[in-house]
């Protein structure tokens, strides 16, 4: 299944807030979840919706998400926690969390167009896994810095997760440590995602 390119607002009405997918917000008083469908949700549907939340927020294909679940299963610790850590440490997500891009698809575009450096080397792979002590910078070119500056100016000055540090005027971000699960910017039950994939891993 290819990456989703359809209407984004439709997804947040169905699944709830997905900040990585779109910076748009519903009007006040709008109920995010579609309540038109009556009746109790099946266990399968509950797990499916949690999986879809994760997939659309991080902008992954079905195959990519399944690959991350398999990696998380082989790692030490809780599979769900490891899965979230793997996704949060992707370069496109780090760029989004630093406020250098308004959404994860926007961050992915910056990376693909070679505007971003990691430890002074151009990295054009959005799925690049960042590590503690990595330094993320914007290329020292007017076009690159102007684009990123626009998003830094627009992004709300919210508290950054403890695993990240941003130096706005230097167009530079630091990865201090592996993310703590409480800082994951998405309301999700990762165990339901792991259960959804239990027969495929």
Secondary structure topology:
Blueprint: H1 8-15, H2 43-58, H3 62-74, H4 79-88, H5 91-97, H6 104-112, E1 116-118, E2 121-122, E3 135-138, H7 142-154, E4 164-167, E5 172-175, H8 190-196
Antiparallel strand pairs: 1-2, 1-3, 3-5, 4-5
Helix pairs in contact: 2-8, 3-4, 4-8, 5-6
Region (Disordered): 20-42
Domain RNA-binding S4: 89-152
Domain Small ribosomal subunit protein uS4 N-terminal: 3-88
What does this structure look like?
The structure is a single chain. This protein has 201 residues and is an alpha+beta fold. The protein has two domains: 8-86 and 183-196, Ribosomal Protein S4 Delta 41, Chain A, domain 1 (Orthogonal Bundle), CATH 1.10.1050; 90-177, RNA-binding S4 domain (Structural Genomics Hypothetical 15.5 Kd Protein In mrcA-pckA Intergenic Region, Chain A, Roll). It is 41% helix and 8% strand. The chain is built from eight helices and five strands. The protein has a five-stranded antiparallel beta sheet with strand order 2-1-3-5-4. Helix 4 packs across helix 8. The longest helix is centred in the N-terminal third of the chain and has 16 residues, at 43-58. It is elongated.
């Amino acid at each position: 299944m290819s990456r989703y390119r359809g209407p984004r607002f439709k997804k947040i009405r169905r699944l709830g807030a997905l900040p990585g997918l779109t910076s748009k917000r519903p009007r006040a008083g709008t109920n995010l979840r579609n309540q038109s469908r009556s009746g109790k949700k099946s266990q399968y549907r509950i797990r499916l919706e949690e999986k879809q939340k994760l997939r659309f927020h991080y902008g992954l294909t079905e195959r990519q998400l399944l690959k991350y679940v398999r990696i998380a299963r082989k790692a030490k610790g809780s599979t769900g926690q490891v899965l979230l850590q793997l996704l949060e440490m992707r370069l496109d997500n780090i760029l989004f969390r630093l406020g250098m891009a308004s959404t994860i698809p926007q961050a992915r575009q910056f990376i693909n167009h070679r505007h971003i450096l990691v430890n002074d080397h151009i990295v054009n792979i959005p799925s690049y896994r960042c590590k503690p002590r990595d330094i993320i910078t914007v290329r020292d070119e007017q076009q690159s810095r102007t684009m990123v500056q626009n998003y830094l100016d627009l992004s709300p000055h919210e508290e950054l997760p403890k695993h990240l540090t941003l130096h706005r005027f230097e167009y530079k971000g630091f990865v201090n440590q592996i993310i703590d699960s409480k800082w994951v910017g998405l309301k999700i039950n990762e165990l339901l995602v792991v259960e959804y994939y239990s027969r495929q891993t």
